[in-house]
Amino acid sequence: MSSEAEGGRSAQLKHTGLRPGWTTGACATAATTAAYTALLTGDFPDPVTIALPKGQTPSFALAAEELTDSYAMAGIVKDAGDDPDVTHGALVRATVRRLPAGAGVVFRAGPGVGTVTRPGLPLPVGEPAVNPVPRQMMRDHVARVAGRYGGSGDVEITVSVDDGEEIARSTWNPRLGILGGLSILGTTGIVVPYSCSAWIDSIRRGVDVARAAGRTHVAGCTGSTSERTVVAEYGLPEDALLDMGDFAGAVLKYVRRHPVDRLTVCGGFAKLSKLAAGHLDLHSARSQVDKGFLARLARRGGADEALATEVAGANTGLAALQLCQAAGVPLGDLVAAAARDEALAVLRGAPVAVDVICIDRAGTVVGRSSVA
Predict the structure, then answer these.
(1) Is the peptide bond before 53 cis (omega within 30 degrees of 0)?
(2) Is the Cα dihedral 198, 204, 209, 210 positive or negative?
(3) C-beta atoms surrounding 365 within 10 Å
(4) What end-to-end distance do the CA atoms of the chain give, in Å?
(5) Which distant-in-sequence residues (6+ apart) come within 8 Å of 121 by Cβ?
(6) What are the tens digits of pLDDT across the range 223-250?
(7) Which of these, 30, 63, 203, 227, has the minimum number of CB atoms within 10 Å of its CB?
(8) Which residue, 261, 283, 270, 266, is CA-closest to 347?
(9) Contact present, 21 and 7 (Cβ < 8 Å)
(10) 20 and 193 Cβ atoms separated by less than 8 Å
């Protein structure tokens, strides 16, 4: 297939013409790898190369390093590419100390990295705000370094970000109960550059390519995890996958004018709860999870008034979902059905059948609608 005819997520990203960057999780992993290598060998690898979840092997130059008898510290300056990320240029540090055999890998929040203080996030209360995928990346790289240089792999990793507490004031962390600094984030290690016009243009290109290839079923996905979910569910080829990102409205409006037989919308529960509530732009800067709306849906699904009140006051969409799951109220299915109905309203009678799949951060399906 020629480059002009390429479709799917990777082609859409390429078409934007924007330079990708690296997540704080990738930077922390690179810093950890360099620091632990120095702790075992006495030398810092510079640049340091890591392996990302999708197989890319970027190299990072060290911006800071320190080695003592008891610990090693390495720092990486985050490059967010062409994305207007508030953490672009931040210095992400990892300090690695040996622990007794059998202790495993322990994470600590250093200056500028937050601590979880409320439920509803993918980490328990009291834990440093280093998200699950970056934690696994760091564990994997610690194991590789230990295997190569004869270490035990039992270490304490303290992640810090210079001026992170100040930077975090420009994020949603304080409202979510992540106090003291930033979260260390990322599921792929790569920051996808954000431009409304370029992204919407890439969505249109994706629909055009899918139609030209004869695809009758396409999927609008909010990210790589939801993309994997629809591939597992339906076996869709790459050129039937639309990297929707936050632009649900752009997909629906273009498909309205250029129909396909079936559209599946797949994304995180919280994002799709925004679509269910009538928002077509799902970016956190322009729409928020409406817990009052979720409480009304929960009542419709059989929640009593006490549970509905808890849902309305939940810290996050995920926390609301978990409350309903524990009570046997199918909030995920209700959100998926409401999101499907909103999508159908935007399609205005176009001959397109729609279904919606809601997932959690791990990609587990937590709600789905029928096809209508």
Answers:
(1) no
(2) positive
(3) 16
(4) 33
(5) 129, 176, 177, 178, 315, 316, 318
(6) 889 999 999 999 999 889 998 888 999 9
(7) 63
(8) 261
(9) no
(10) yes
pLDDT of 2 strictly over 60: no
Instruction: Name residue, tokens 């300090």.
Output: 95
For residue 338, the one-letter residue type is A
Spatial separation of the C-alpha atoms in residues 78 and 334, rounded to whole Å? 39
- pLDDT, one tens digit per residue, over 47-57 is 999 999 888 99
Pairing of strands 181-182, 112-113: parallel
CB burial string 67-100: b at 16+ within 10 A, e below: beeebbbbbbbbbbbbbebebbebbbbbbbbbbe
In the structure encoding, which two tokens stand for residue 49, read together? 């190369």
CB within 8 A of 171, min separation 6: which ones? Answer: 86, 182, 183
**pLDDT number for residue 17:** 67
* pTM for the predicted model, two decimal places: 0.65
